[in-house]
Structures are given as structure tokens and as C-alpha cells.
Amino acid sequence: MSLIASDTQRIVVGLGVTGLSCARFLAKNGMSFSVADNREIPPGLDQFRQEFPDVTLSLGPFQAGQFDAADELYISPGISLREPVIASAIQAGVKISGDLDLFVQSARAPLVAITGSNGKSTVTTLLGAMAEEAGLKVAIGGNLGTPMLDLLSDDSELYVLELSSFQLERCAGVNAEVATVLNVSEDHLDHHGSLLAYHQAKHRIFRGCRQALINRDDMLTHPLVPDSVRQWSFGLQAPGREAFGLRDEAGAVWLCFGDEKLIAADEIHLAGRHNLANALAALALGKAAGLEMASMLSALRKFKGLPHRCQHVADVDGVAYYNDSKGTNVGAAVASLRGLGDRFQVVLLAGGQAKGADLEPLVETLQEVGRAAVFFGESAPVLSEYLGEGLPSQCVSGMDEAVLAASRFAQSGDAVLLSPACASFDMFRNYEHRGECFVDAVGRLAQGRLQ
């Protein structure tokens, strides 16, 4: 590695996957930098030392004023801009950037940028599959899978990125060909401080975009953009001209573009009406990006969904079990409850770290479509108090106990849904681990080995 000597002091703040990708990008472009992390042993430490043995690395708690003399900070998404040492640097006039800024400066192919409180991973992955089906060389990642800087290539014909509010809040402009906020509900309030600040961070995705996609069912997704920005829309009601939506005809539900029927809902391998909204969003984004409709519909027919997102696990004694462990906020859990509530009475498994969110809307929806509830984790007492005597419920201490309790509440023809509405870190390594524990417990239940 050969870095060009410079008086410019660049610091990558936060290691991990994003920090490593920033380091690789800066090194590849010959730009000198150092790295700081407030953890003694951050993720990716060994890999960093192997790749960049000569780069200065500062570990351990940040010190007051540590970054005030820097020229530019590349801040990893997990570090809040309200962190005192970061706020001090901002006050001192230090330029704040992130991996998204570096990506925008370097990408040469069109970008479809996707954010939202829920569904963004499904829409990103599905749109990527549609572009591949259409024969494009597409790079898919961002907050999902491969870090965006590692995707940069002169061969790419299209980028499809999932972007988080954490990434967006420190980006000057995204300059996407097509940008969307799929939906907005309370999430990450412990990081952003308020729903307004969270909403504002999400809407930074529209900065510099040429086309925008809005959700007609969620006014919080509608951007303030110039008239020159073409706007598309999707929603779960009948669409108008040049819009995507659902139509009921002869007892069948169809995904439509205007008056044109595109595909019947029963041809799609995704559970719940919220996933019909995700499919409509992907079709709309692809249409805006110039993808052929036939290729998009072919990809949609093949798409089986993502693990831990309203994923059908098994049927046991006439009860369908669904793993929606990625439902880490109230809006996601409510969407899954309503989606399955069209077909089933639902026994809900929920709980964990609420991240400052109001859990009452979850309980209100549960009372509409639920048969019973099983609560676990830090938020279990709060959820139980909200539900009161409205439905049968039980608080448990582990996933095996939760699945066993749910199986006793459920009746043939019901669904058991793990959609926790909370983060997982009080009991599990991450949401994937939580979902895997659920799938394992359901498997043992089916074999008669869960006790």
C-alpha cells in the first residue's frame, strides 16, 4: 500500500465492516488517513491490522476534542452524530462524511436508492433480482450485504442500494436516478432523538434525485422535490394512471400498473399484504429505472423472500409458523400482523429492546387480529401491561418456552408469528440468531422433542 503524503487529516471513525471498506477505498485512491474506534477490540481489528499495518489506529474511549483538529471525519453508521466528541468536531468546523459520500463521488452507473422503516431489504434484493433477470450487470448492497464502497466497479451498469437513516444523516447528497422512502414508522428513536429527526434523515435520500417513488398509503414518504423530479407511486388500493396498485377482479387480487393487470397475487411466494406492497414498490422502481416488465415479472415469480422476513417455517398440527425476526420495530410487526391477519388468527411472539418506541400500537393491532400473545425480553412487562386482559398472554424467559406456549394457545388454522417489534440484543446475538432459535424450536416441536 502506498499512500500519498498530505497535510489533510482524514480520520475513519469506527472500524467494523463499514470502517474497513472506507479504509480500503481511501488506500486504493492513495489518500492518507488514520482510524479511531472507542472500543478496545472492535470488529474487523485483526483484518485491519493485516491489511494496513502502517496506518495509525487509536482504540479505546474517545477523548474530549480528539477530532477537533481534523479536516474530515468518515463516520461509521453506528456512531451517533450526537456523540460529544463528534458534536465538538462539528462545532469546530470539521467536515463530516461517510461511506455514502465517497460512493456518490465515485459511482459512474445509475443508482436506485432505497430506504424506509420496513421492507427495504426485501425490495432491494427483489429489485436486484429483477435487474439481473433483465440482463444488467447490477451491484446490490449498502446497508444490506456488501458494503457499498466494495461494490464500486467500472463494469456495473446499475447500483441498487439499501440505505439506513444512520448512513443518510451524514450524507450531503445521494444523486440517485430513482430514490424512495418506502414507509416511515417509529424506529431508532434512541439514536435520532425524535420521529421528526428520523424522518428528516430518511428524506435526505431524495437530495439530487432525478425520479422519486412515493407510497400513497403513507404521507410521511412524500418528498419536497422540484417539479423537474418525476414522481411515481405505489399503494395497496386501485391505482390511477401511471401508478402501481392492487385491483380485485373476479375474486382474484392483481398487481397492476394503471389499468393493466401485471401478475396475480397468488403467483407470488411472499406472505402478507405488506409483501404485496414490497412487490409493487420493486416493480415501480424497476419501471422508473427502465427495466423490462417481462423480466421483472419473471423474477418476481421466482422470488422466495428473505430469511427472517415473514418466512414460512413449517405447519405443525394445522398451525402455520412464521419467522419475522427482522421485524425489529413496531411498524414492521404491525405490518406483518395485518398481513397475516387477513388469513389467520395470530398468536404473536414479541419482545426485546424497544429502542425508545411506543409499543401500544402493536398491542392495538394484536387485539384486532390476534388469538393470544407470548412476550419475552426487556419489554415483556410493558407489553403485558398494555395488553392487560384483552387477550390470553404469557411472559416467558426463552425461545423454547415461547414456542411451546404459543403452540398451546394456537388452534388448527391459526398462525404463530415471531415478529418481535424490538431489537434482539438483550437475549440474542442479533435478529438472525433470534430467528434461528425460533426455527430450531419449531423444528423440535414438529418432531415432538420440544419440552
Automatic annotation (TrEMBL):
Mur ligase central domain location: 114-285
Name of protein: UDP-N-acetylmuramoylalanine--D-glutamate ligase
CC terms in the record's Gene Ontology section: cytoplasm
UniProt GO BP: cell division; cell wall organization; peptidoglycan biosynthetic process; regulation of cell shape
Domain of life, per lineage: Bacteria
Assigned keywords, A-Z: ATP-binding, Cell cycle, Cell division, Cell shape, Cell wall biogenesis/degradation, Cytoplasm, Ligase, Nucleotide-binding, Peptidoglycan synthesis
The Mur ligase C-terminal domain, residue ranges: 308-422
Pfam family, one: Mur_ligase_C
Gene: murD
Family membership noted in the UniProt record: Belongs to the MurCDEF family.
This enzyme's EC code(s): 6.3.2.9
Entry's localization field: Cytoplasm
Record field: catalytic activity: UDP-N-acetyl-alpha-D-muramoyl-L-alanine + D-glutamate + ATP = UDP-N-acetyl-alpha-D-muramoyl-L-alanyl-D-glutamate + ADP + phosphate + H(+)
Pathway entry: Cell wall biogenesis; peptidoglycan biosynthesis
Binding annotation for ATP: G116, S117, N118, G119, K120, S121, T122
Molecular function per GO: ATP binding; UDP-N-acetylmuramoylalanine-D-glutamate ligase activity
Known role: Cell wall formation. Catalyzes the addition of glutamate to the nucleotide precursor UDP-N-acetylmuramoyl-L-alanine (UMA).
